[in-house]
Amino acid sequence: MNTQSFDPWSSGTRAYRVTLVLGMASTAVGVTLVVLAMLRDSGETAGALSSTGLVFLGVGILSHLISIGLRRRQAVQFLSRRAKDD
Fold first, then answer.
1. Cα distance between residue 37 and residue 70, in whole Å
2. pLDDT of 1 above 50
3. Membrane-spanning residues where (predicted)?
4. Residue 12 DSSP class
């Protein structure tokens, strides 16, 4: 039986880790920008901050979905190799 760790961070690919961190960072920036836009009630500036924040939130969500797909693909490969070894 294969005893390789199934921890997503330590056994995940570099692409998985990069997209995961990118998604978390983009989401944090997006939330910060949207909150700043709500605190600044000055029309055009608030609109620009809010729009930019929403774009960052969208990039963060998309990046998270990509990282889930990458991890799923790796987990399927890992489990199929484990099944062959047994």
1. 34
2. no
3. 20-39, 51-70
4. S
Q: What is the mean pLDDT of residues 49-70?
A: 96
Angle at 21 between CA 18 and CA 27, to 5 degrees: 135
CA 20 to mean position of chain CA atoms: 4
pTM over 0.90: no
Is the CB of residue 73 less than 8 Å from the CB of residue 19? no
Its sign, for the CA torsion 26, 29, 33, 35, is: positive
The alpha carbon dihedral of 42, 48, 50, 53 has a sign of negative
26 half-sphere exposure, CB direction, 13 A CA radius: 18
Determine contact, residues 61/27, Cβ cutoff 8 Å.
yes
